[in-house]
Structure formats: structure tokens, C-alpha cells
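Exercise 7b. C-alpha cells:
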């Protein structure tokens, strides 16, 4: 492997090539964003003037990525918890997403744009976490 320049998301190895799907980069970004304290969840967009909050199964749905051979740009759509300092939460999201993508894929992250699309109040969050009565 000496002298070979390896680039992600497609990496050439002695056994073949490795391709990282854009969806994988989006999931990594979504997971990193939801780990930030103050993030209530990912946003699936705004319907009827209200931001739709996605569950953990739809992490990549609140993320848009552009992935090149060596670089990636990310747009993250989140809902924050009421009472948090939004600029601080947004900066932490940018940092965590950048570090997660770069360490897991080898891509250089050139942009992480954070779009805050709503605020979740404690009672909304509690209602969402209630277990189903019937399984």
C-alpha cells in the first residue's frame, strides 16, 4: 500500500475498493447530533407551521449531506429543548458532527449547517416517551 493515495468515501485496497454510502454519512451525523445535550430530536421538516420531530429510527431523515471524494458538507435539521442556549447547542452539534464524520470516514468536513426548526417543551417530550399501553 506504500505510495498509494487513499481517498474516502471510496478507498482502494489490495482486496478491492470500499465505498461509504451517503446515507451512512447522514446516519453518523444524525447520531452525533442527537448525543448533544439540549437536542430534543431531529426534524423531518415543517408541516402546517409545526416542526415534525422524528424518532431515533429516522436519524438520517433530518440530515442532508453532500459527499465528494475527499470532502463532505452537512445540513442538520434539529428541534431543541426549551430553555437551552441555542447558539451553544448549535456549535456543539457542529463540533460533534464534524469529529464523528471525520474520524469514522476519513472525509474532511467543510461545512456543518445547523437549522433549528423547533422547540420541544418538557410535557411534549414526556408524552412522546410514554410506553404504548398495548404491545
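Sequence design result:
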Amino acid at each position: 500500500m506504500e505510495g498509494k493515495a487513499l481517498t474516502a468515501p471510496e478507498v482502494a485496497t489490495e482486496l478491492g475498493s470500499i465505498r461509504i454510502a451517503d446515507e451512512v454519512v447522514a446516519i453518523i451525523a444524525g447520531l452525533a447530533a442527537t448525543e448533544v445535550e439540549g437536542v430534543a430530536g431531529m426534524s423531518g421538516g415543517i408541516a402546517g407551521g409545526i416542526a415534525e420531530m422524528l424518532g431515533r429510527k429516522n436519524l438520517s431523515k433530518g440530515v442532508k449531506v453532500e459527499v465528494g471524494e475527499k470532502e463532505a458538507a452537512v445540513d442538520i435539521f434539529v428541534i431543541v429543548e426549551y430553555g437551552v442556549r441555542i447558539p451553544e447547542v448549535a456549535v456543539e452539534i457542529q463540533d460533534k458532527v464534524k469529529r464523528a464524520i471525520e474520524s469514522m470516514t476519513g472525509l474532511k468536513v467543510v461545512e456543518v449547517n445547523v437549522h433549528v426548526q423547533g422547540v420541544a417543551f418538557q410535557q411534549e417530550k414526556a408524552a412522546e416517551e410514554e410506553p404504548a399501553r398495548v404491545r
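Instructor comment: Residues 86-105 form the longest helix (20 residues). The radius of gyration is 17 Å.
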